[in-house]
Amino acid sequence: MRVNINNSLEIVVSSTNSILTSAKKHGLTIRHSCLSGRCSECKVKVVSGDFVMPSTQEGLTEREIQEGYCLSCITTPLSDMELEEVSFIEGVLPEVKTIPAKISSLEFLSEDVLKVTLRTPPNKSLEFLPGQYIDLKIKSIKRSYSIASTPSDSEIALLIKNYVGGQFSNYLFNEAKINDLLRIEGPKGTYIFPKDLPQHLIFISTGTGIAPNLSLTKSALKQGVQSSQITLIHGQRTSKEHVYSIEEALDGIKVIQCTSRESTEGYVHGYVQDAVKGLNLDMKKSLVFACGNPEMVKELKLQMIALGLEERNFKSDIFVPSN
To answer: Average of pLDDT values for 240-259?
Structure first.
């Protein structure tokens, strides 16, 4: 079977692979994040052709489904297809590898947030781009975590929330010890910088969703982006939970901290979506990175587009707990 993409190229596909996987076999990387149909990063429009997509496609609205959109990470073709609005990333992503790693430190930032620092063997270091994530493995358990450190840092830092009943949470919060051996599979994801950056960079997150945005923000500063070009908005339930915003690492940029469950001096009372309304920025010259729960990301995307942001300049990374 053949799939015509954006009226500009054609690839051969198989009914045993998703559209995204088939494209990758041809050296084409469609923008993606969760790889499970929960976000909308890999959304494409089907002009013609038959396909199968699971009914649990959380990343699409009912209207988008009616308009013919599908999620390329979980959609398999049944016939020749014609697709539009397919967004590819520029350049080549680092190769996904499985490498060993040992725990260097376990720092409890709060009762339910743990900073885990990992080190890899000198001859098996992890090459990744700011904003990417890894799969962490211990025994038969595997979970995905975004990297909070930058590629130039000597070790890999993760910010991990404790989910009640979570298998990996139980291990990390109650059993893990320094020098425990784990496995890393990665890097993964396309929550990364494009080749050319616009005038303004806006990073928005909730909870531990700040992790990839910290990596991106600090990397942008290291690459010479002016602090005045960057705005970071982060939401928590209370001011006490803002312990891992790491403001000292973000010197000079505009940091807006939101609290949804209390009104505290120095914080914006409400959700990150409320803080966006007060930004005096030209959205047509902005690039937005949003990371957190699915509801926040979906609402924020509609809001930013309504304010003039081009859809292609909204990058998202969905944080969803697994058990």
So the answer is: 77
- pTM for the predicted model, two decimal places: 0.88
Q: What is the mean pLDDT of residues 68-79?
A: 94
Stronger pLDDT, 57 or 237, i.e. the higher one: 237
Residues in the chain: 323
Please state, in angstroms and rounded to a whole number, the distance separating the CA atoms of residues 18 and 13.
8
pLDDT in tens, 103-148: 999 999 888 899 999 999 988 899 999 999 999 998 888 999 999 9
Encoded tokens for 169: 């949470």
Q: 77-112 burial by CB neighbour count: b if 16+ within 10 A, else e? A: beeebbbeebbebeeebeeeeeeebebeebeeeeeb
Which runs of consecutive H residues, i.e. helices, occur in 19-60?
19-25
The whole-angstrom separation of Cα 206 and Cα 12 is 40
CB within 8 Å of 196: residues ≥ 6 apart: none
| pLDDT classification of 56: cutoffs 50, 70, 90 | low
Q: CB 234: neighbour CB atoms within 10 A?
A: 26
Nearest residue to 27 via CA among 83, 92, 96, 75: 92
Burial of residue 141 (CB within 10 Å: 0-12, 13-18, 19+) is: middle
Residue 35: how many CB atoms within 10 A of its CB? 18
